[in-house]
Amino acid sequence: MSAPFGRRLADAVAARGPLCVGIDPHPPLLAAWGLTDDPDGLARFTDAVVDALAGSVAVLKPQLAFYERHGSRGLAVLEDAVARARAAGALVLLDAKRGDIGSTMDAYGDYLRPEHPLSVDAMTVSPYLGPGSLQPAVDTARQQGGGLFVLARTSNPDAGTLQHALVGGRSVAQVVVDTVRGWNTPGWVIGDPLPAVRDVAGRLGPATGSFGVVVGATLREMDLDLDGLSGPILAPGLGAQGGSVADLRRLFGSDRAVVPTVSRDVLAAGPDPAALRVAADRWTAELAG
Ligand SMILES: O=C(O)c1cc(=O)[nH]c(=O)n1[C@@H]1O[C@H](COP(=O)(O)O)[C@@H](O)[C@H]1O
């Protein structure tokens, strides 16, 4: 088994800064790069991003949908790119947003196994079949040293329609956060009372948990209690969706283990590898400032 994902993420962030760059080869972006919307264009795009950034950013986050739409040849492109990205030192977070009943969730969790053709360090998952439905993937993550990021309070404008709904006095998003907090506490199982808060600051450090939440950088205000999460917060919505580094500070303060993720704002700088690096470095510098 690899070292736990939370530990590996903390090491990567310490060495490279917290930036995650999303690899989202959507058709207008392929066209803007002068590439065809087919597996060949997809491979050129993906290889360029991996070659430019896998040696310098902490996390790369390929969006599975953009590979699946090209069928088996698209998945082959991704398998090759993921292996090269990991070999170059980047952690790979597969943006799959999967969630299903136990036996199927078990199969989705296989992305975290080293023998999977598309083996990754972590994946995004959706909790809307109930937090307990994700347990098989939690078990696999624990066995294999993988990580999960659970959708809690997403960056899209109508996210609150469901995520603000109240369940026993807590919002659905808060139930998700509290569940993930429990996963980061060994020995806790779904249904038990919540464990005592052990790491109020939730800082990245040796004790950082491998289970994170997704909370958009586009929120008008922080409407979640994230104290004691003891795991990372993936924060999408920067750049193209309007979020800024100032929004990150306003929403999360400076003590939380935030992994800001940017796709289009960096990718638009391509295909020149140097320009891609400059765009990513600009975010890294602003995050450090
Ligand atoms: O899980 C995600 O990464 C994600 C969660 C969320 O709340 N909002 C969100 O935009 N994303 C992903 O982030 C990527 C878009 O990033 P931008 O191009 O930077 O806006 C897409 O792959 C989305 O699926």
From TrEMBL:
Pfam families in alphabetical order: OMPdecase
Catalytic reactions on record: orotidine 5'-phosphate + H(+) = UMP + CO2
Keyword Lyase attributed: yes
Keywords, alphabetical: Decarboxylase, Lyase, Pyrimidine biosynthesis
Enzyme class, first EC level, given as a word: lyase
Top-level taxon: Bacteria
Family: Belongs to the OMP decarboxylase family. Type 2 subfamily.
Annotated PANTHER family: OROTIDINE 5'-PHOSPHATE DECARBOXYLASE
NCBIfam families: pyrF_sub2 (TIGR02127)
Protein name: Orotidine-5'-phosphate decarboxylase
Organism of origin: Blastococcus colisei
Phylogenetic placement of the source organism: Bacteria, Bacillati, Actinomycetota, Actinomycetes, Geodermatophilales
